[in-house]
Fold each of these.
Amino acid sequence: MNRAARDSEHVMTGHLIVSDDNAIRVITMRRPEKKNAITRDMYRAMSDAIDSAQNDPAIRCIVITGGSGVFTAGNDLDDFLKDSTSGGGAPRASDAVTFLYSLVHNTKPLIAAVDGIAIGIGTTMLFHCDHVLAARTATFSTPFIHLGLVPEGASSLLAPRTMGHQRAFAMLVMGRTLSADEAREAGFVNTVVAPGHTEAEAGKVARDICALPAEAVALSRKLLKPPPEELTRRIDRESHLFAERLHSEEAIAAFQAFFTRKKE
């Protein structure tokens, strides 16, 4: 993507870079030392970047990327363990849910450039995107069940609609990982490209969309999607169960086992 364009602006917030290149807003997760694991601050900054684009007619398209080699490892599990053992849990949940609400209420075409791993919310956020490009080496996994948790991000509603119940069950309930080609076959990845080329290709798609009549695009996009209220209702239901599960014996044991393995 032409980041050097004279009219591009870059704003760095913690581990997030937001840059406007002509009519395209690019949101880049930049926390390579943690495989772009998403912190509370990152959730808030991503929400702001999406929300502030809504009433800006100059922004015609939004691209979400993790840069080269990785998309995101999902929620920062250190935050998770603190929440699951603290008796709290609401702050993490509310920041993630605020981000998901921003995705639901977003009216701009949304493109994801996935160059590497997409774990947990890294995969479930893709069901809110309109066009997804993945590197050949990308992998998609939602290991909620292994942590004693339930799916989030309205994925329990959107994944079966996209790929059918059986594939959604294998991914969301059994925790099976999908390759880029399998994700394309399942219907939530549009195009598989060479590693390192996802952002450039996403830029081309965004420019194609920007060349279309804006109002017709917005109306058509809205027709294709479930009503926002239906999605937010499902997100709330999932979040309620997710928060309950965080304090379950299953989840606490799974997290402790995970961190013990990590230390070995």
Note: The first strand starts at residue 9 and ends at 13.
Amino acid sequence: MSRTDAILKRLAQLHPKLIDLSLERMMPLLEAMGRPQDNLPPVIHVAGTNGKGSTIAYLRAFLEAAGKSVHVYNSPHLVRFNERIRLAGKLVGTRRLNQVLERVEAVNAGRPITFFEVTTVAALVLYAETAADYLLLETGMGGTYDTTNVVAQPLGVIITPVALDHQGFLGTTIAEIAANKAGILKRGSQAVIGLQQDAAHAVIERAAHRLGIRPIWQGEDFHGTAQDGRLVYQDEDGLLDLPPPALIGAHQFDNAALAIAATRHFGLPVDAAALAQGLRQVAWPARMMALHGRLRDMLGPGGELWLDGGHNEHGATALARVIAEMNQTRPAPLVLIMGMMNTRHPADFLKPFAGQVQQIFTLTVPGEPNAHKAESIAGMARAAGFAASAKRSILSALQAAAAIPHARVLICGSLYLAGDVLARNHTPPD
């Protein structure tokens, strides 16, 4: 076990629950660490159900194309914990990560605190101690009681589309979940809101009104559409004709437009040339990512291997749409290799793929005690009308997929599975 893993294991044992949404444990620790949340570069805080990571990836690409240095906070990581903390453009080094984790651990002195809370404190300390022009801060879950919701006055707030997810923690309806996400809105901060269902729109609008905020809304105040292979963006300041985003899928035009709107509405120093460069260079691993290397080679000539960490019905809908678009160019039998955590419902995830899938091979996500068993996922898939069978490993699943000539194979259902696949393929994020 590495030193980092040993520290993280100790921190994970400080609280009996992995998730216990509250700021009460975290605020005293932040006070003891010198209130790093008050000494950050300008913060853009991002909440929502889907598209948070992609929207942040676009913002980072735009700002870096404009010559700015950017901190980023994302979760979860795929292969290494370091991926969660990007300091002025580079993933935090292991030695520095270990040092700050141990500093925070010592100050906390064994008091109960969740893993995400204590590691977020460590990240905020690093961001406060490292010079950068901006911090892009992604919520972990929800908004109101999310551990990132400690910045009193962010430069701007973004709420991406809200959908049903984490109902056991955030609420059972779209309106309840939206109210939780809207908790990151702050009086005096600007806000940009992504495409929303009516129930979410109403809740977010009321929350903004109470705080005296006038957000701009995707689909009303700004639009981004695909036209002749280009991204055409329009708001009250005019029209931009831009290259298509490097990330794959029609939903990425929406995510890119949301990031462009935030760039303009928040007054970030990014011109049209930097927007175009950012769209060409943006990268976000495990989001409809083409895999090459040893795992892809198992499929033989003519096979395709794709990886996506989407894990709810909203994300699956976007994936199914991408597959449909691919079939217009090159029809191919679709094979899903999927594993899921037991907080998700495999049948709901599979609904958008009805009529598209030839075969499903299911896996138990390696190393995750809270994962659905492969046999359970396969049974639920068969009950939903899909041909499905359980496999013991990603290797055995790929061997089975290789028997289907010229298949388009999509590994999906869990970011934890995606991380395991990237590690086995020897292609971890930078």
Note: The chain has a mean pLDDT of 94.
Amino acid sequence: MVLQGACDDLKGSRLFLKLLEAVLQAGNRMNVGTNRGQAKAFKLDTLLKLADVKGTDGKTTLLHFVVQEIVRSEDAKSEKAVEDEARNIVKDEMFRKQGLKVVSGLSNELGNIKKAASMDFDVLHSYVSNLQTGLGKIKSILLLEKQCTQGQNFFARMRDFLKEAEMEIKQVRCDEERALGRVKEITEYFHGDAAKEEAHPLRIFMVVRDFLSMLDHVCKEVSQQDRTVVGSARSFRMSATTAMANLKMYGQHERDDDGWSL
């Protein structure tokens, strides 16, 4: 249930998909004029490297910029009824806090992701296998019934238990396969053919969990910054040439057919 819930959360989160879109746009903006400037997708692993790309001030990272852009877009939803000329510092700060609250709430919205990331699927699978092995031992014990002159009540109860347990474990196996199928589906949804190369079936949740931790940290930093840096692309002053140099410094030498990676 946790694994399937994590898949639903990941694919159904409007804010997470919006954040991915913002990252894609930021990457294309930084790579404008190059063959990486028109990417259509990127691997989620890239999210973990957004904090490595820094602006000219040495403090503002690409993740800060993305968060600020999302905050500004969420601000816009709150300010539709307010005319531009009527806005003032107080209202602007209020809208900014509302937008930041929405972004910082993504971690709670994707709560199942954190639970799924802490699981070890191999261990989970072994638990079911051990239960099935235990049923085999019970069957061996039931074979002794013909040799026993006593304990008929015990054997009768064990037969009933075995019948019920076999049905339950069969259902658990089906649930396990269904959950793993959903995980593979969501991994392919975000990673395409790269899903076949995933060594750990639940790795996608680990990546998102670590990113959410980074996001929480950045949201706290943004909330402490002066409001003048919010929503301004100029606060992340980096030319396409400088951006490419920095990205290459952090290992951006590869590009797939439709995306870029940091």
Note: The two ends are 33 Å apart (CA to CA).
Amino acid sequence: MLESKIKESFTTVEISLPDIIKLLLDLKDEFNIQNSDVDTIVKAVKLDNEKSKKQRDYLYNRIKEHINTCQSCLLYAQENHTHKVAGEGALNSPLVLIGEGPGFDEDKQGRPFVGRAGQLLTTILNKMDIRREKVYITNVIKCRPPQNRTPLQKEIKACSKNLELELSLIQPKVIIALGAVPLNYFKSGSSIMRERGQWINSRDYWIMPTFHPAYILRQHGKTLNKVKWLVWQDFNEAVAKAKEMCPEYDFSS
């Protein structure tokens, strides 16, 4: 009698699992993984071998599916919305770059940082001998706001489940926060002008706030040279920290 009541309780109550757990359970089924420890599975996925690469490809496709079905805020229904924009790059990278949200070009192509600001970001990485494909690049929100306005707090909150899913899988050591929106995502009430270049240690991440590439493009003359130098310093410090914490990871090949 008691046993039947217990069974009945499990069939009538819906248990909501975190998205990361659902994804890893699907991964276990897909690849017949016997281990059930989340940390062990995530560590195995990051290994530099063909099996782990296939698992990362599977997880990345599932992340994109998860983001593409998101209707947690009304940005997806705006006239200017064409594609949701998931992050892209290496799920095993110790370094993640986070911007604000998609712009016009990103919305049209469904890829992050492909417009003028994205081209500048790629140039910075190339000058540091870092292949863009060897880091993970994403945004706080995944849909373009109208007229590229700053995302509202309710939109950031609604979309946070998507960013958190990415971060839960990657478990980066270092994050470069590109601009005020990602900075405030991790440390609310912050000013990018005051806190740029100063390390923030939050949730086991080392976070380096710096100016968004779009901000660099809006500068001129001596101010432009100064801002470019500051961002260059911030990137070098962040990359050095990532290499220090994960010396085995190869950013250039």
Note: The chain has a mean pLDDT of 93.
